[in-house]
Write a structure and sequence with these properties.
Structural class: mainly alpha
Number of helices: 4
Radius of gyration: 20 Å
Protein name: Transposase
Number of domains: 2
Largest sheet: none
Distance between the termini: 77 Å
Organism: Nocardioides endophyticus
Shape: elongated
Pfam families: HTH_Tnp_1
Number of strands: 0
InterPro entries: Homeodomain-like_sf, Transposase_8
Strand content: under 5%
Length: about 100
């Protein structure tokens, strides 16, 4: 009898693709590390990159999930803004002392 084909959840596929995208490691290395084929992981990475390039067109069907996602995004943007404010102040003070 034939062996059953492995199935992976959408969350697992996204996380595996993010390993490649976020760390800039080669697909083949990550694929070997997590035990999937490099071609399969390459397809997952392509799908995730396409999803990242396309902004969400519709609001999430689940308002609670959308709210949680937006709260995380707002927190990240606030951290980025604080960092940029500190960096701007640092470079402004560096320019004044020279």
């Amino acid at each position: 009898m034939g062996s059953r084909r492995k199935t992976y959840t959408a969350a697992y596929r996204r996380e595996a693709a993010r390993l490649v995208i976020d760390t800039d490691r080669p697909i083949a290395h990550v694929a070997a590390e997590i035990g999937v084929g490099s071609q399969l992981l390459g397809r997952w990475v392509a799908v995730e990159r396409a999803r990242m390039d396309d902004p969400p067109t519709a609001v999430d069907a689940d308002p609670q999930a959308e709210l949680a996602r937006l709260r995380v995004e707002v927190a990240e943007l606030r951290r980025d803004r604080e960092f940029l404010k500190k960096a701007a102040a640092f470079f402004a003070s560096e320019n004044q002392t020279q």
